[in-house]
Specification:
The protein has helices spanning 2-19, 24-36, 40-53, 58-72, 81-100. With 106 residues, it is mainly alpha-helical. Helix 2 (24-36) runs parallel beside helix 4.
Length: 106
């Protein structure tokens, strides 16, 4: 589909930027691509690294919260104690994002 082709192209561009130097921005961009592709483990990994480099960037925190939320919806997470931890991680990141930027769009 067209959306899949666009996501694959965005991934390629983001990976090229990442290869020339990992910055919070390149990690964030690539994490967003993986989140859109529903590859939540990879998205969380990259967005956590982006957060570590830019801990006060509300957009990164918000996207990391979204990645944790998506991860919590995986069938293998339903009904497990790990799901509660992942949901808590999502809420913590959403809260921090809103503390930094109360007018942050959804």
């Amino acid at each position: 589909s067209v959306n899949r082709l666009l996501l694959d192209r965005a991934q390629s561009i983001s990976e090229s930027a990442f290869a020339s130097g990992a910055t919070a921005e390149t990690l964030h961009s690539l994490g967003r691509v993986y989140l859109a592709k529903r590859e939540t483990d990879k998205a969380v990994e990259l967005l956590e690294k982006a957060r570590d480099l830019a801990p006060r960037k509300a957009e990164i925190l918000s996207d990391l919260g979204a990645a944790y939320l998506e991860k919590s919806r995986a069938p293998q997470m339903i009904g497990t104690p790990a799901r509660a931890r992942v949901l808590n991680d999502a809420l913590e990141n959403f809260d921090r994002a809103l503390e930094i930027a109360p007018d942050l769009p959804e």
